[in-house]
Amino acid sequence: MSLTQRKAYFRFRRIGLYHLVWGTLAFFTQHAVAASSIDTQASQWVVNHIEQIGKEQGWQSLHLQPTITLFTPPEHLQPCSTALQFSAPLTPALVTRFPLLIQCDAAHASWKVRAQVNVELHLAAVIAARAINPGSVVTAEDIQFAPLTFKPGMRVDVVTQLNDALQMTVKRSVAEGQPLRESFLSTPRLMSRNQPITLVIQQEGLELSTGGIALQNGGKGATIRVKNSSSGRVLSGTIINDQQVLIRAIE
Question: Are 181 and 206 in contact (CB under 8 A)?
Fold first, then answer.
């Protein structure tokens, strides 16, 4: 082989190696970007969805860290040129671990992949400020807010609003510092039939109070029939506490 032929041969080899290396890098870069896009979009969807649930539930000081595990390797999926679609059976109690379906409906790529979502969740919840015995009615001195951490797989079934615990009856012992769970509480009877009460009447931005009589038994938040002592009218209202019933509008 002449010197000119050898130079041409090695130049060809260098060009071929150059294209091979850059082609390989481009392949892995493309799939790395695709994998990153899937994980990024999925994580953002999970954060938005759980934050919406938290808003509806009244969760306070909410922070979360999701981890997405795809059941199909990203390198087996074609890059999706459109926004991915997500669906999951999310409920407030089960937001720390759930299955996720990810779907691409692009013209050149159509696929579905399943994933597992694990979430570490931080929020403020109601805990016992002191030991509470079974049968006790919860008072403001019994409870306080505290930050809690929920690891993946833990149920978020704690009370997160002070008003949801006040005047509720505790069904089991609660130690000092222990979170109050919804299953620990029951609604006590706050009002009895024929009991004299105060009607808090709200209508068109106005509020006034008048005397009344309870016509039914009920617990906090229950809707019962009452009678206005002044007019004799029978109304429906919501029990606020053991003395007051809220009337949203005069019937």
Answer: no
Q: Give the phi and the psi of residue 107 in degrees, each rounded to 5.
A: -60, -40
Residue entry with tokens 């209202």: 237
Q: What is the mean pLDDT of the chain?
A: 85
Task: For 83-137, write each residue's pLDDT tens digit.
Answer: 999 999 988 889 999 999 999 998 888 999 999 999 999 999 999 999 999 989 8
Strand 143-150 relative to strand 206-214: parallel, antiparallel, unpaired? unpaired
**Is residue 199 classed as helix, strand or coil in its secondary structure?**
strand
Distance CA 15, CA 10 (A): 9
Mean pLDDT by 10 residues, the chain (251 residues): 54 49 40 64 96 93 96 88 92 94 90 96 97 93 96 95 89 95 86 92 86 90 90 91 84 49
Amino acid at 120: E
Helices and strands in the chain, H and E counts: 2, 14
* Residue in 131, 172, 129, 127 with CA at minimum distance from that of residue 148: 127
Give exposure, 135-153, as e/b (b: 16+ Cβ within 10 Å). eeebeeebbeeeebebebe
> How many C-beta atoms surround the C-beta of residue 160 within 10 A?
24
CA neighbor of 32 nearest in space, from 67, 75, 84, 61: 75
